[in-house]
Amino acid sequence: MSSSISSASTGAKFVPEEDNFLQRHVAFFDRNKDGIVYPSETYQGFRAIGCGYLLSAFASVFINMGLSSKTRPGKGFSWSFPIEVKNIHLAKHGSDSGVYDKDGRFVASKFEEIFAKHAKTHHDALTNDELKQLLNSRKEPNDRKGAIAAYSEWKVLHYLCKDKNGLLHKDTVRAVYDGSLFEKLEKEKLEKKRASKKHP
C-alpha cells in the first residue's frame, strides 16, 4: 500500500511519496498532516515562512479556491475549499517551468534548463530581470490563469529568498521544489523569534 494514502478515517498521518516532489512541496501547508490543506492551513503556512498578514490571507483564498475542486475529482463542491495533497498533480497549471512532470515528480533536466537558459549574469543564480525573462519564455498562448499563477509563485519566492544583491540562488530554487525550503524558512523564523525574546 502506498505511503501517500491519506487515512483520515483511521487517524494515520499523511506521508508524501518520497519521489513526488510536488506532494512534498504542498505537504508543508498540511499543518496537521491529515492529507488535506484547508485555507486556514495555507494561511498558517505562509505566515510560518515569513509572509505578512495580507499576503498570507490573499494566498489562502487564491490558492484554495483555485486548486480545491481540481484535487477532488468526483466529489462535490465544498465551501471549505479543501485541497487533497495526494491529488495535487491534477492541479498543475500551464505556463510553468515543467520541472514537475504530469505526476508531480521532479524532472532534473528541466530544472537545469532554467539556469542554462536564463542565468546569464551568474551561472547559479537569477537576477530579477532574468526571472522576468524566464516567466515570459514560459507563457503559453491564451493561458492567463497559468501565467498569473506562475508569476505569483516566482515573485513570492524572490521576495522571500533573494540575497542582499537581489539574486535568487539555484540551491534555493531546488529546495522550493521539494518543500525543504519552507521547513528551513520556518525554522529560521522560529529561531529569530526565540533570540528576540532572549535579547529584547
UniProtKB/TrEMBL annotation:
Chain segments annotated as transmembrane: 46-67
Keyword terms of this UniProt record: Membrane, Transmembrane, Transmembrane helix
Cross-referenced InterPro entries: Caleosin-related, EF-hand-dom_pair
GO molecular function: calcium ion binding; monooxygenase activity
Top-level division of the source organism's lineage: Eukaryota
A Pfam family the protein falls into: Caleosin
Family the entry assigns: Belongs to the caleosin family.
Name by which UniProt lists this protein: Caleosin
